[in-house]
Design goal:
Blueprint (H helix, E strand, L loop, with lengths): L4 H10 L4 E6 L3 H14 L8 H7 L3 E6 L1
Parallel strand pairs: 1-2
InterPro entries: FNR_nucleotide-bd
């Protein structure tokens, strides 16, 4: 995700896209969240606020399993 940060930001930051995180419940969801927060912080968001905003708008969904 970080390698394609500009593309990711265009979709979720500028075009109000949705995020679906699916996969192993290990470290993957946390790592994806960290990548999204890192991308958002490079566009002026305070650390830790972007995922909360996506959650409050219903624009992020998790489907994880162990």
């Amino acid at each position: 995700m970080l390698k394609h940060a500009d593309e990711v930001w265009n979709i979720i930051g500028r075009e109000d896209g949705f995020v679906f995180i699916a996969g192993s419940a290990g470290d993957m969801p946390k790592d994806v969240g960290f990548a999204l927060e890192t991308i958002a912080s490079s566009h002026g968001w305070s650390e830790g606020t972007f995922l909360k905003k996506l959650e409050s708008l219903g624009r992020i969904q998790y489907e994880t399993w162990s």
